[in-house]
Amino acid sequence: MGRKEKNEQQREGIRQMILKEAKNLFLKDGYEATSMRKIAQGAGISPTTIYLYYKDKSDMAYALHKEGFKILGKQFMVLQSVENAFERLKAMGKIYLRFALENPDFYEIMFIMKEPIEFLSKQDTCEWEEGEQAFNSLLNTVADCKKEGFFKEMDERIVALNIWALVHGLCSLKLQGHLDHVAAAHLGEDMQRDVLDDAYNGLILMISSLR
Amino acid sequence: MGRKEKNEQQREGIRQMILKEAKNLFLKDGYEATSMRKIAQGAGISPTTIYLYYKDKSDMAYALHKEGFKILGKQFMVLQSVENAFERLKAMGKIYLRFALENPDFYEIMFIMKEPIEFLSKQDTCEWEEGEQAFNSLLNTVADCKKEGFFKEMDERIVALNIWALVHGLCSLKLQGHLDHVAAAHLGEDMQRDVLDDAYNGLILMISSLR
DNA sequence: TTTTTAAATTAACAGTGTTAATTATATTTG
DNA sequence: CAAATATAATTAACACTGTTAATTTAAAAA
């Protein structure tokens, strides 16, 4: 009995080791450029051994996807200490934005890449738990803002969705390289540096007048 | 002399034929799933012949990227007949959204994929002409709205960027599959169908009160 | 008609994700 | 303890991928 438990732990240890190597490579070279063979070499095992621990490559992408949501969730923890709902909403967006800029590869796996979501669809559970939970945090905050007089006569779900879409839009345009090109053509050099912050502050300004 | 001109035309003809086949496959199976060999087979030529007409695979992605912007530009043409600036802005967003939903693969090549933008960066011209032009249309419309009393005391470039980010955010969340999961968890079945329209109408409602 | 030039092709390289068959390693049983 | 069994890991193999270099074919010029 004790034997088997130890075996389970050993298995988990190898699982973790593989994921650690996959993470290093994914975050360094990106998903497509990271091959199973490279991961295996880094982990000191045979390429096909990975398939004894993960179903396929997208399975590993999903594992990192989950890890990313854990990190983001931890960063959201500080929001609990923010009493004022609107301040909390503002801080939430800032954290989200900062997370995307500081962890672009995690962000890509979490919100841009199709693979992790497709992996979910291929599995029995067709629920995107991580995303739904994160969206719920936003939804609750928006609902709290409504109680304080914001977003009158608007569906809080629609408001939350729009805010998410806006911030995600900024992040993805930035990370995919589109934003820089447009910024270079339409904004002064001084403004280019902090386009994202400027845009976000503009958003806050707009929302602020929606009392 | 005449000979050479005819040759140039022949070359262009083959170029078009290759691109046509690439387009079919890209729009059917996606960029990654489309191989040079499949394109060549469809065009009835040898795989390596493609490299006599296009630098590499990302070059063809960029060619389709340009084609997509031509289509979108044509659909934007009707906006010229809309006198009222705010109505024009509303219509612009609707056209953009519809284009994304009706041409998801074009949209992906134009606004999500890194390859076309990266191809630009590798070339001498580091300008994203198509994107900048499209953004300019939006920028002018926002500026016109400002003259009519909207977006007071706000930088029109910031407003335009936020609107683009919001609509793009909705489109990309929808196309990558994230939106459907969240909608399934938080919205009733009746609302799921037209989440995008509902969200966009919500946006218009919010902006409308920004006079 | 021969020479030159350009276009298209085949062969080849160095990889990719993944499955099936095989070997090595523990674990359990006689 | 030795033999049989179960499991973990490996090698071999498949059917691909984008791309380059060398070679052949076709057309134009001399």
From TrEMBL, chains A, B:
Specify the DNA-binding region ranges: 35-54
InterPro entries to which the protein is assigned, alphabetical: Homeodomain-like_sf, HTH-type_Tx_Regulator, HTH_TetR, MT1864/Rv1816-like_C, Tet_transcr_reg_TetR-rel_C_sf
- Domain HTH tetR-type stretches: 12-72
Keyword Zinc-finger in the entry? The reply is no
The domain of life is Bacteria
Query: Which key words tag this protein in UniProt?
Result: DNA-binding, Transcription, Transcription regulation
Q: Does the keyword DNA-binding apply?
A: yes
Please name the PANTHER family in this protein's record: ACREF/ENVCD OPERON REPRESSOR-RELATED (PTHR43479), ACREF_ENVCD OPERON REPRESSOR-RELATED (PTHR43479:SF11)
State the name under which the record lists this protein. Answer: TetR/AcrR family transcriptional regulator
Q: Look up and give the organism this protein is from.
A: Pedobacter montanisoli
